[in-house]
Design a protein that fits this description.
10 helices; nine-stranded mixed β-sheet; 373 residues; Lyase, Ornithine Decarboxylase, Chain A, domain 1; 25% strand; alpha/beta
Length: 373
């Protein structure tokens, strides 16, 4: 099997989704699986759906189109405010989208009417993260404007936490967000079908004992994929943290002096001499670098330490027996490392423990690298 590659244990993604769905269900909260970190990979999306996710969401239309081409027919929501240049595509492939700009909503409405359909709109509210969102004091006015626009339907409101400024969702903030849902219904009339309280950072709050109020949806990517809570990085009880493994090949192995000073012996540069120092270690060079992933987001194999990396080389030290050339080392990834590695066409994706009846799908892009095992 070629390397570098990402090995994806679909059974662990399925079980992670199932675990969260079962824990949130009694709290009145459903799960929307977020596929942006895996570039809309259809088999991973399907594992989320089979684990109980009510629908899918992504931030990029190219990923949504990948899902649709692979035969995914469930509701898909665009969770980044649509670009004006893409409103026709948004209406074509997404049932709903998160929005903050009335001009964009009007453009979505025109595109929907031209396609003889109605596009669902969820208004994103600013609750302190200072990324995207309508200020709470302006929400009722925007909602009333949306209600008057044919071609779109106001389906809900959403909030976001711990993305730009690491603002964690607290009980008072979530109670305030629930109150906004009630306020909008009192002002505009229709019942809000979706009150999406946030992302994986909301899980400590959602698993707590306090009332979840009107919140009935969370958009979950990192928790399902990596089994961790984003703010603390801690493993979520009962979740797998090793559903994804990055595999890289050793291309050089040697014992070299550290820190490797070079002394000029001849001013004419005819001769250079390496002066050994203490701290000699076994160094490995792997065919992996900054172009492939976030190197600092990798967990080093047992007995290994990171020495450094360049665009195409990863250098690590190890106190384990020296591996052979061509052997492989395995790394766990954080969310950023996973996101970057999954987006690279040169990194193959190998699916393991696929217990469903799905067949390999061959479409353009990354799916050309897929292998079902």
């Amino acid at each position: 099997m070629s390397s570098p590659r990402i090995e994806v244990d679909l059974s662990k993604i399925h079980r992670n989704t199932q675990t969260i769905v079962r824990r949130l269900g009694p709290r009145g909260i459903g799960v929307t699986g977020v596929t942006k970190a895996v570039c809309g990979h259809s088999a991973i999306a399907q594992a989320m759906l089979e684990g109980g996710a009510a629908g899918l969401a992504d931030a990029r239309l190219s990923n949504v189109e990948t899902l649709r081409k692979a035969g995914i027919t469930c509701p898909v929501t665009l969770i980044r405010t649509p670009m004006l240049s893409q409103v026709d595509q948004v209406v074509q492939v997404c049932e709903a989208s998160y929005n903050t700009e009335i001009a964009v909503i009007a453009a979505l409405a025109s595109a929907a009417i031209s396609k003889d359909r109605v596009h669902d709109v969820i208004l994103m509210v600013e609750m302190g993260d200072q990324r995207d969102g309508i200020l709470p004091e302006n929400l009722a006015d925007i909602a009333q404007q949306v209600m008057k626009i044919p071609g779109v339907a106001l389906k809900g409101i959403g909030a976001n936490f711990a993305c730009l400024n690491d603002v964690s969702p607290t009980a008072p903030k979530m109670a305030a967000f629930s109150a906004l849902a009630n306020e909008i219904e009192g002002t505009c009339g229709p019942f809000l079908k979706i009150v999406s309280g946030g992302n994986s950072a909301n899980l400590p709050w959602a698993f707590g004992e306090r009332s979840t109020g009107r919140i009935n949806d969370l958009r979950l990517g990192e928790a399902i994929l990596l089994g961790v809570e984003p703010v603390s990085g801690d493993q979520i009880d009962g979740m797998h943290t090793d559903a994804f493994t990055l595999v890289a090949e050793v291309i050089e192995t040697d014992t070299k002096p550290a820190p490797f000073p070079i002394t000029l012996v001849d001013p004419t540069l005819a001769r250079l001499r390496i002066e050994p120092t203490s701290g000699v270690s076994t160094r490995l060079i792997l065919a992996l670098g900054h172009q492939d992933t976030d190197i600092l987001g990798l967990s080093m194999p047992a007995g290994s330490t990171l020495i450094g990396a360049t665009s195409d080389h990863l250098v690590i030290g190890t106190n384990r027996p020296r591996p052979n050339l061509g052997s492989e080392l395995r790394f766990q990834m954080n969310y950023k490392a996973l996101m970057l590695a999954m987006a690279l066409p040169d990194i193959a994706v190998k699916l393991i423990n696929d217990g469903t009846s799905r067949q390999p799908r061959h479409t353009q892009g990354k799916s050309e690298h897929l292998t079902l095992v």
